[in-house]
Amino acid sequence: MNEITYHREGDYLIPDLYLPKQPEKHIGKYGRLRLNYLKEHKRGLYTELLISGTLKQHLIEIDENATDEVNELIKQIAEQENINEYLKEHHQMEWVQAMNNIKNRAEEIVFNEIIYV
């Protein structure tokens, strides 16, 4: 069990409180979406993570997992639908349209399976 230490300032004892060291990594798009979701819909979990000092690490993990999953899904769906370099070279606008559609579908899957759970 953690003991709280105090230091004296005049007639008062002040607790020696500090936050745990936070990771230096950047929180990306999916981590920020998760943060907003926790604040609005999962206040208990948000408060628990915040108080324990693990919120930033949780958001970083969610961001990394979501990014990896989106990239993997994009590759898989593009391969299944035969969206390849030939289409990219010869029909750029169709390729862009197809890839945007695939990215939107991949993100929707990740939102429902990772971010908004």
- DSSP strand content: 5-15%
Task: Tell me the strand order in the biggest sheet.
Answer: 1-2
Q: Please state the CA-atom Rg, rounded to the nearest Å.
A: 22 Å
Number of domains: 1
Q: Assembly state here?
A: single chain
Low-confidence stretches: none
Shape: elongated
Relative helix content: 55-70%
What is the distance, rounded to the nearest whole angstrom, between the alpha carbons of the first and last residues? Answer: 32 Å
Features:
117 residues; 2 strands; 5 helices; two-stranded antiparallel sheet; single chain; mainly alpha
Summary?
This protein has one domain (26-115). The protein is elongated and about 80 Å long. 68% of the residues lie in helices and 7% in strands.
Notes on the structure:
With 117 residues, the chain is mostly helical. It is 68% helix and 7% strand. It has helices at 29-41, 43-52, 55-80, 85-90, 92-115; strands at 6-9, 12-15. Helix 1 (29-41) packs across helix 2 (43-52), helix 1 (29-41) packs across helix 3 and helix 3 (55-80) crosses helix 5 (92-115). It is elongated. The mean pLDDT is 94.
